Known about the structure:
Helicase, Ruva Protein, domain 3; Arc Repressor Mutant, subunit A; five-stranded parallel beta sheet; 16 helices; binds adenosine-5'-triphosphate
Amino acid sequence: MFEKASAIIKDGSKLSFDYVPARIVHREEQTRRMETLFRPLVEEGRPCSAFLFGSVGTGKTVTARRFCEDMAAHCASKGLGMERVLINCRIRSTEHGVIYHLLRHYDPGWPDRGFSADDMLRALRKKAEQSAKPLVVVLDEADVLLKSGNRDLVYQLSRLSEEMRPPASVSLILISQYSVSEKIDDASASSFKRANTVRFDRYTRDELRDIIESRAEEALVQGAMSPEVMDLLADMSREYGDARLAIELIERTASIAEGGAEGRITADDARSANAMIYSNVSESKLADLDCKRKLALLAVSRSMKGSPFVSITAAEKTYAVVCEEYGQEARKHTQFWTYIQDLEGAGLLETAVRSEAEGGRVTYISIPDIPPKELARKLEILLDAPSGCDECRY
Ligand SMILES: Nc1ncnc2c1ncn2[C@@H]1O[C@H](COP(=O)(O)OP(=O)(O)OP(=O)(O)O)[C@@H](O)[C@H]1O
Ligand SMILES: [Mg+2]
């Protein structure tokens, strides 16, 4: 049992959401901004602050964690100490919960009852002073904390440094999916100057492709995931610009392939993983298609034959065969092209024009959301059922 090494996954821990890669690709600009914002802390021990914001899966948490690790290592190399604590405010959503967690960082035996927030803040100040090191507090998902009316805490934490004996100080990194400037009061907002904002935009398709490649290199057996499958995963996660979805797709795809017989990840494994995560291909979307478009889509799905893309010429050939099978007249190329565009508009397939090595440009069709075999099966069921279509018996 368990003697045989996995053919696909080399190190599953590299796909966990807790894993912090050594290099966060495409977040160099944000990291540089944070370096600028925290230079006064590293060079003069002055408290600093940053507010990281951007939508889901844009790398805010992982960048903040990498940054804190690297900053602490840099300080250590200069003989300076630094304490850092990351608090997820979704888990600790009260002022009491946050301060308690900070205190426990210094004193793991601190009791969870019997002290007011003010008592605990005083104790925290003392403990931080005793440590004689700057403290960096990362409040992740800070919007949850601020929503529940804890505006004051940000102010109190940012003011704590004024009462502290250097070199102890408290620096803050707030992370949120939303702009929280309207949620923190003016006094805290002034310590969180607008200039301290670090924006995290959604990742582009190509950035996601690079993230997928770098994570696959770390987590998967070399060669288990082909560049074509990486392209497909990037296409699948592009709509949301969300790296979490991209990494979840790698994980699901790899575990589906692990159970398969191929010994490598196929395009269909990727599609199955995507269908599990986000099924954009709802039954009703397919049922709403008229039979001509159903036939065109059936032709495309049958012509994929396990590859990630198919040229429109190859799909059109299969279309002629499919029409014959269903006793329908195959439409001309321009009409077929219109069907393809309509199907793309409905989000059922995607097209891309590529320049070929031997010259000329070719349109390729892909079906990112569902394994084509599964799509073909659904369409065959629909086409076999009497539909009441006026134009044909389907
Ligand atoms: N640039 C990147 N390079 C490598 N991995 C990344 C990158 N950006 C994000 N990730 C990975 O994607 C996942 C989501 O990232 P992270 O948790 O940092 O997102 P987030 O912006 O904090 O999202 P949320 O707002 O939902 O908390 C994590 O597994 C993280 O390691
Ligand atoms: Mg996060």
